[in-house]
Each structure stands twice: as structure tokens, then as C-alpha cells.
Amino acid sequence: MLNSPDIPAGNYVFIGHSNFRFRLAALITRQVKRLKKLLAIRPVCQKALHSHAADETTGHLTNRAKDARQVIGHKSAKDGDISLWLTATRSLATLPGMLLILIAALTVISPASADQTSPIAVFYPDIGEPYRDIFTEIISGIETKVNAPVTSYPVSAGTDISALKNSLNTQNTRVIIALGRQGMNTAELFENHVKIVVGGVLSVPENGTDDQPVISLTPDPGQLFARMKALMPSMKRVFVVYDPAYNSWLIALAESSAQAQGLELVAYKAQNLRKALEIYQQIFSHVDSRTDALWLPQDPTTVEDSAILPLVLQDSWNNNLAVFSSNFGYVQRGVLFSLYPDNTGLGKRLAGLAQGILNTGDYGVHGLMPLRDVKSAVNTRTAKHLRIDTSRLTSFDKIIPEQ
Q: What is the rounded distance in angstroms from the CA atom of residue 197 to the CA atom of residue 98?
């Protein structure tokens, strides 16, 4: 939670971000109601008024907007709300004082007073931890790339679309970077008015990515193969079981990547758990651990956590078969290594795509793309079991178990 800063006596300070305007409506409404109540109060005697003012002089008045951390490059921000603090060391008990507060607030939120515009806006899901920090880091990367703050909006199913549209118009927004499924769904409501860049999703509908660029959270298979080959130079074949409903696009990309690296990709389709288990049993019955490896993509059917993954990990351990994945959590469970998102790097790449659109007015690259801004994690216990040279592990970003 953000803490109220120390403010010298008599000063009134606003701390916030440019996208707070449309979210202050509730605050202004409350101030108007208070003014109406004051207008309805009969005048009190001067002596009583002075006595009340004297008592209030030593107090502190703090009006706080919804307690939240802003995900705009600040890890301490609460997702979904704008951080606004109106702090005072002297309570204004008279009507003129209340009018001053209202006028000041209206001046700040008035579009006419906003000198800055932001042609790039970011939509991100209005959700809590631990995902909040992920979007914080992505937005930080975006702002680093554009070298300026961007207007960021937490969105949910209950977002006021009309108010959001007004704010985008005020900011002269031309490109929306949509993060996550909710960010993408909300941004699509404005696709006839602005360009859209999508990131932070695993997959999208087959016919929903033709026009706009979408960076998946699925790591580039070419980078996975290269990393595996660096650990085990004798590798010749890579086995994978996938559900075509989720990963047809990824396997097509993986086939060309494997061929470019002199590898054979043996890909099996499975559309249910039973079929996937049968295929894994077939693989383990004839693999050669000296030249083969198993790739576990992000696939809810063929790499199901509770039933399939434990069996695959146990059989691979018994057969000394190297298994690598696209899921960081699997490394902690025994997979040799994985690649996972570099959130700041992803933000920079998304910002680069947005800048390209601003410069040319066109999308340029489009369609579903794999994640190429990645970090790496390796399980040293599994590496030792597979007798992999530990000197080859030094280039990984995260070592598990931690040393």
C-alpha cells in the first residue's frame, strides 16, 4: 500500500497518473454532495464558528481514493485503481474552503488543462497478486522503450466503456497495447478506431490474429531446441505430444525450427488425456536417452498437471530421458529446464511494435508470434542425474534448487 507522504503544513498535494481523470468522477460526486449539504445548513453564530475552526486547525484532513497500487511501472501499486492522495494539514470548515477543493479537483481533471497526450495506451487485467506484478513489469518495459509514461487502464468485465472511450479520445490514443485475455477482449471494442497490439496471452482464436500482432506467452521452440542442444550436443530427436486445438500453430513453427537445427521433430496429436497417456507410454518404450529428448509445451490436454505430468516425470527419470518445457513451474517439479517470459523485455518488444504502427500507420508484422524475450531456469538435481556437464549450467538465469 502506498503511504501518504509528509506534506508541509498548509499544502495540498496531488500524486497520480494522467489516466486518473475518468476515475475521479466518484470523488467529485462526493464533493458535490457535501457542498449541497453545506448550502442547506443555516448560518451559525460567529463565536461558534471560530470555536469550531480553532478545534479543527490542529487536525489533519485526508481524502483518499480507493486504496490501490497502480500497475504503471511501480511494483507497490495495487492493480485496478488509481493512486490519488489529497492531503491537508488544515481542515477547511467553511463553504469557501470546500469550493476551493472542488475547483482545484475540477481543474486537475479537466481535459482542457491536460497538456500531455499519450498516443499509446495500455489495457491490463484488473486482478490481484501474483499476476499484478507481471503486468507491472511489462508496463515498465513499455515505458522504458518509449522513454515516457504511457496511459494505463486496469480493465475488467465491469469497466465503464463509455468513460474509457472518452479518456482515450482525450489522450488522442492511436494504439492500444492489450495485455492478457481481459485486456485483449476490452481492446477489441475499439478496433475500428485504434490499432491494437496484444501480449501476455497463451493463445487466440485461429481466425482472430490475421490483422494485428499478438505475442504469445509460449516461448519460441527454436530457442528451446537450441538450449537443449547446448546441454546435450548428442541430441538428434525431439518428441512432443500436443492438442491441435491449442498448439497447431506452434508445432508448425517448431517443425521448421527443428529442421533448421538439424533435428527431427516427432510430433503426436492427442485430443484427450487417455490418448495422450497412450502416446507417452509408446514414447518411453522405445526412446534412446543418448539422442532423444521430450518437450512439454503449454498444453492443458497433453501436459495436464495432476494426472499426466507426474507420470511423465517419473518415467523420464527412470529412463534417464531429458525433458524440457515451456513452463517455469515444471522445473521445480523435476523438468531439466524451461524458458519463461522476461516481462520487461516483452514490454519493450510490444512498445516497439506500437511505435512502428505510429510511424507507418500500418501494422507491418501481424499474426500470432512466439515469445522471444525469455529467461531460463534449470534443475541441477535433474542435470546431475542425467550426467550433464555442470559447467553448461552457468548461463541460466535461475538455478533450482537455489544455491
A: 44
DSSP output for 184-200: HHHHGGGTTTSEEEEEE
Cell 542425474 -> residue? 385
Residue 118 has a pLDDT of: 80
Treating both helix axes as pointing N-terminal to C-terminal, what angle do 343-360 and 131-146 enclose, rounded to 10 degrees?
Answer: 40
| Residue 185 CA: distances (Å) to CA of 120, 136, 156, 233 | 17, 19, 9, 43
Q: Where are the beta strands (DSSP E) in 9-135?
A: 61-64, 85-88, 120-125
**Diameter over CA atoms, the chain:** 97
DSSP state of 71: -
pLDDT in tens, 257-307: 999 999 999 999 999 999 999 999 999 999 999 999 999 999 999 999 999
pLDDT in the model for residue 361: 84
The cell for 124 is 491490463
Q: What is the separation of C-alpha 214 from the centre of its chain, rounded to a whole number of angstroms?
A: 14
CA angle 321, 224, 123 (to 5 degrees): 130
Return the domain boundaries, the chain.
Answer: 18-113, 219-341+374-400
Is residue 76 pLDDT above 60, yes or no? no
385-388: Cβ within 8 A, 24+ apart: 385/317, 385/320, 386/232, 386/289, 386/320, 386/322, 386/336, 388/231, 388/232, 388/322, 388/336
Q: Is pLDDT at 338 greater than 70 in this prediction? A: yes
- Mean pLDDT to the nearest integer, 330-338: 97
Element spanning 400, H or E: strand 398-400
pLDDT given for residue 156 in this prediction: 95
Closest-CA residue to 200 (of 53, 40, 302, 350): 350
Rg (CA), the chain: 28
- Name the band, by pLDDT with cuts 50, 70 and 90, for residue 202: confident
pLDDT in tens, 28-42: 544 544 544 444 433
Contact 165, 21 (CB under 8 A): no
- How many residues can be counted in the chain? 403
At the topology level, CATH places domain 219-341+374-400 in Rossmann fold (3.40.50)
Cβ contacts of 186 within 8 Å, gap of 6 or more: 123, 155, 159, 161, 164, 178
pTM for the predicted model, two decimal places = 0.70
